[in-house]
Amino acid sequence: MNSAAIFVIQQPMILRDREEIMLQCNKNTYNHGDISGTNFAMESAYVLNQLIISAIVVTCFICTKTIVDSLRRRNARLTLVIIGAGPIGLTSMLVAARCGRVSRIVLYEELSKLTLFNKPHQIALDVKSVHFLKRLGVDFDNIEGCWDSGCFYTRLGVFQEYMLTTVPKLGAAVDLRLGTKFTRDSLRDLEKIDGRKLVLACDGSSGQAARLLGLSDEFAQHSCRAYGAVAALDRPDECQIPMPERLMHNLHFDLTAYGAETSEVDGYQGFSFKVFGTSRHRFMSLSIPKCESPQVKSLRTVLDRSMMRNIFLKCFNTYKADSEPRLSDPIAVKHMKFSPRLFEVKLSQRLETSAYFQDSNMFVLAEGEAARCYNIHTGMDVNVGIKGLMGLSSFISLACVVDSEHAILQALLQKNKDADRICRDFIKAGLVEYHMLKTCL
Ligand SMILES: Cc1cc2nc3c(=O)[nH]c(=O)nc-3n(C[C@H](O)[C@H](O)[C@H](O)COP(=O)(O)OP(=O)(O)OC[C@H]3O[C@@H](n4cnc5c(N)ncnc54)[C@H](O)[C@@H]3O)c2cc1C
Predict the structure, then answer these.
(1) Tens digit of pLDDT for each residue in 331-347?
(2) Angle at alpha carbon of residue 229, lines to 264 and 349, rounded to 5°
C-alpha cells in the first residue's frame, strides 16, 4: 500500500496547527519507515489544509463585503440641488422626494413665490406626462385646469403653486430658497455641502447655471425639416382661463393678392395651424414640412407683414373656439405680435448635459429648456423637458452609489444617451407628436 494513503486528512484536521500535523506525520513515518513518501504526504496535507483555510477566509470576506456593500448601497443618499423652480425644476423636486435616495433638497429660484404663482401662460401636459405625474402622486383633481383627449391644460403659476405646496409635505428635507438667484458665489455654498451632491440646472433656455457649474456652453442646432411661424395675442380684457388647443391641418392660402404665385398646390402638403394658450394669452403656430411649394417660397421670401398678419387673423377667426370673441383688424394690429416670414424650425441641443466633478464629489445635469429647446412654440413644449425626467429617479439611485471611475462614466454615458434620444425623437417626430404637423416628410 502506498504510504501516502494513510494520511487521510479529515475536516477536524483544519483546526490543528502545523506542529501537530508534523508530529502525526513523524509518528506514521516512524511506524512505516518510508521517509520520502511521508514527507510528500505531510506537505500535501499542509497545502490542502492551507487551501481550505484560504477558501474559508475568502468566502467569509466576500460574504461580509457583499453584506456591507448592499447595506451601504441601501443607505446611500445624496444632496440634490435644483436651480430653477420652473415646471422642470419642480417636477425634479417631486421625483427626488419620491425616490427615497435624497437626504436633502435645496431649491434656488430667483423669482419670489408671488411672481411664480402668478405666471400667466399655459402649459399643456400630454398623455405620457400626465401618466408620469400621476405615478408620482400628482392629484390632478386638485389642480385648476381643463382636460381634452387625455391632455391636461393649466396655468404655469397654478402648477408651480401646487408643486411648491405639496412636495415639501412629502417628508423629504426641502430647503426652498425662493427669491435667491444662483450665482458664482453660490458655488461656495455647494462646496460646503458634505458628501455626494447632484446639481440640476433647470433654469430655462436663457439660464447660466449650467455654464457656472462647469458644463460646456456649446449647442448644436438641428433642423426639424419643417418651416414655421408664430403669433402671440394679448387680450387684456379676457381672463387667464386654460383652454384646450385647436388645430387644423392641410391648409392652403391664396396669396395672389400679394403678388405671389400660389395657385399650384397639387402634390404639396398644406399648412398646419394651431391655437393654444389661455383665453387671455392666445398663441398661434403655423407649420409645414420643409418643401419648395410656391406658397412656402412666397412666405419665406416676401417680406410683407400684412400678408402674415392676415393669415393669422383669418385662421384665428375661422378656427377659434365658439365662445371666443372674433379678432378684429385693429386689435390684431395693436395686440398681435407675429413672425413676418416662415422660418426653419430648429432644435437647439446642449452638447454636454451631464458631468461629474471628483474634487467636489458632484454630479451636474442640465434638464428642461436648459438642455434643449426649439425656436417655435408647439403649445406642448413642457413635455420634452418632462421626458428628460423619466429616467431621473434611476439616475439618482445610481449616482448615490457609483464610486469607481468606470461606473461613474457608465452612469454619465447612459444619461447622455437618454438626452440624445430625446432630441433625436423630437427631430424625427416631435412636431407630429405635438400636433404641429400631420405627417413627417
Ligand atoms: C409665453 C410662453 C408661452 C408658453 N406656452 C406654452 C404652452 O401653451 N404649453 C406648453 O406646454 N408650454 C408653453 N410654454 C413653454 C413652457 O413654459 C416651457 O417649456 C417650460 O416652462 C420650460 O420649463 P423649464 O423649467 O425648463 O424652464 P422655465 O420655465 O424657464 O424655468 C426656469 C426657472 O429658473 C429660474 N432661474 C433662471 N435663472 C436662475 C438662476 N440663476 N437662479 C435661480 N433661478 C433661476 C427662472 O426664474 C425660472 O423660474 C410657453 C412658454 C412661454 C414663454
Answers:
(1) 999 999 999 999 999 99
(2) 120
**Complex ipTM > 0.95:** yes
Work out which ligand 1 atom sits closest to the CA atom of 212.
41
Distance 163 CA to ligand 1 centre (A): 15
* Tens-place pLDDT, residues 143-198: 999 999 999 999 999 999 999 999 999 999 999 999 999 999 999 999 999 999 99
Question: Are 311 and 387 contacting, i.e. CB atoms less than 8 angstroms apart?
Answer: no
Residue owning the nearest CA to atom 37 of ligand 1: 203
- Which run of H or E residues covers position 159? helix 156-166
Q: Which residues line ligand 1 (CB under 6 A)?
A: 83-89, 108-111, 121-124, 156, 181-182, 202-204, 207, 209, 276-277, 283, 368-369, 377, 379-382, 385
Atom of ligand 1 minimally distant from the CA of 90: 25
Residue in the block written with cell 447655471:
209
What average pLDDT does the segment 240-251 reach?
94
The residue whose CA is least distant from atom 10 of ligand 1 is: 123
Q: Assign 3-class secondary structure to 43-84.
A: HHHHHHHHHHHHHHHHHHHHHHHHHHHHHHHHHCCEEEEEEC
Asked if 392 and 92 count as a contact pair (C-beta separation under 8 A), the reply is yes
- Grid-cell match 408651480, residue found: 160
Contacts of 436 (CB under 8 A, 6+ apart): 226, 228, 272, 274, 285, 287, 376, 378
Strands 151-155, 122-125: pairing is: antiparallel
When computed from its CA atoms, the radius of gyration of the chain, rounded to whole angstroms, is 33
Residue type, 121: H
User: Which residue puts its alpha carbon closest to atom 52 of ligand 1?
Assistant: 121
Ligand 1 test: best mutation among 95, 106, 110, most atoms within 8 Å of CB?
110
Distance from the alpha carbon of residue 384 to the mean position of ligand 1, in angstroms: 12
Whole-angstrom distance, CA of residue 187 vs CA of residue 324: 49
Please give the DSSP secondary-structure letter assigned to residue 326.
P
